[in-house]
Amino acid sequence: MSASFQCPKCGAPLDVPANPGATIRCPYCSNSVIVPRDLRDGDEPEWTELNLASLTGDPEKIQAMRNAMLEGNKMEAIKIFRQLYDVDLAQAKTMVEDLMDGKIVRLQRPGTVSFSRTSVTFGETSGVHGARLQEALRAGNKIEAIKIYREMTNVGLKEAKDAVELMQATLGTPSGPSQPAIPPNPQSTRQVKRFVGCLLVFLLITTLFTIGIVLFSVNQAGNVANNTIIAVSTEVALATPLPTQDPSFAPLALRIGKEGVCGGCFEDLRSVAQAPDGTIYATDYEGGRIQVFDAQGNFVTQWTMQTQGYTTALAVGQDGSLFITQSGHLLRYQSDGTFLEEWLAEGGDGFDDVWPLANGGMAAFRYTVKGDDLAVFDAQGNLDLYVPEAISGQTGDSELRGRVAADGLGNLYTLGTFNDLVLIYNANGKYVNRFGGDGDQPGQLRAPEDVAIDQQGRIYVSDIKGIQVFDSNGRYLGLISDQGKNVFGLYINSQNQLLAAARTEILVFDLPD
């Protein structure tokens, strides 16, 4: 009989497979679950659990960080935390907030923080973020709750959505035990849809019949006054159903890959790009594996980056070399996986995104403790343009995770995922316009992930609603269906197709001319 334990997220019983690694995936809620140490095989590194009173490292820096936390200076605390441990800005932010809320940070090996934490339940929400989450849940504002949960845990959109739905299901008894998530019954769903359809048809017929009676009564009253009798037909004209049409702004042309660990499979696909010769490159958030496909989506080969970390963006230069942002580093590789160089810019902490420019250079989003900056490089890696505080300088609100894209004229478009805004700069770094804003209406943004620009200057932003489309001035044009997936990275190829990294597969859309 195999060993088992419970999923910390949904409470489902989990069987431990033979020779498990550090994590397995829960079949009920799809959460990545850490396998207890005593149930693992192999030589896995030990975990050390630390709280604010038991941090390790430079005593003076630790004391300075504690003082910053006590004074409410979170940004200073984040800066010191990153000096003590090798984590990126988003991870440091989450961990500092956990420590300030009295929670535990898990260290995997000396000097390195492994960003792994137990999912937050309704009964465990505390601190400022926790209060906001509980308020959103009680108000029934699911989308806002998902956004807050992602700020608390730094998990993907699907994990946050699943967790919030689980909290909603147990909201009446927040202290009670969680139950496994049960997938919807497809047969019941079809029955509900048929019932709703029949009800709508019945209401339509009833409404038309009532209007006919009213018109008949009005005509009769007028005719009696004029001593004239007019025959009125009692037939009701029914609406003719229109042919089924795809309401999406752009049709789906191709699906590439599937869930798994094989060649051509993905576990947590976040970044995709395509070279001028049609070769497609894609990578998961963790692991450093770069997978290569031909222009038709057939798997060709794969290779692994020489460093390990969190990959947040991928781009291909005009010479075919790959630019990758990994744990804050902007790295350049040959297409066969040979490491070439690292591009640097003074005055910042790390890079979060990169986008190719028509002149052979690269635009990048750079984060710092004090700001959020745009950096533009020429084809040789020399810094051409630097725009400090490109988002927070215009909004007045801090931005810890930004994305960047550029059009053929060199105009820069930066997405503030915490500000829910796209800000436009011209090629000289001058602020031009903004659009978006937090909300559920078309054109407003909720939990945005990435931004891309096509050959016509249209702007694409992926968020919880799908992929929203805007013209070059930020006017809403339409929506591209995300096919029920969570779309993270976006890329536009030379054939005017949109490539979307959708967690377990690449979606390719044909964009209109």
Overall description:
37% of the residues are buried. This protein has 513 residues and is of the alpha+beta class. The strands form ten sheets. Strands 8-33-32-31 form a four-stranded antiparallel sheet, with no helix packed on it. Strands 11-12-13-14 form a four-stranded antiparallel sheet, with no helix packed on it. A four-stranded antiparallel sheet has the order 15-16-17-18, with no helix packed on it. Strand 16 (322-326) and strand 17 (329-333) form a beta hairpin. The longest helix has 40 residues, at 186-225. Helix 2 crosses helix 3 (89-100) and helix 5 (142-153) crosses helix 6 (157-169). The N and C termini lie far apart (60 Å). 23% of the residues lie in helices and 29% in strands.
What is the compact description of this entry?
With 513 residues, this protein is an alpha+beta fold.
Distance between the termini: 60 Å
Strand order of the largest sheet: 8-33-32-31
Identify the overall geometry. globular
Q: What structural class do you assign from the helix and strand content? A: alpha+beta
Number of helices: 8
- Share of residues in strands: 25-35%
Helix content: 10-25%
Secondary-structure map with pairings?
Blueprint lengths: L3 E3 L6 E3 L7 E3 L6 E3 L13 E3 L8 H12 L3 H11 L4 H12 L4 E5 L2 E2 L13 H12 L3 H12 L3 H13 L16 H40 L26 E5 L1 E2 L5 E2 L2 E6 L5 E5 L4 E5 L5 E6 L6 E6 L5 E5 L2 E5 L5 E5 L6 E7 L5 E6 L4 E6 L5 E5 L4 H4 L6 E5 L5 E5 L4 E5 L5 E6 L13 E4 L5 E5 L2 E5 L5 E5 L9 E3 L4 E5 L4 E5 L3
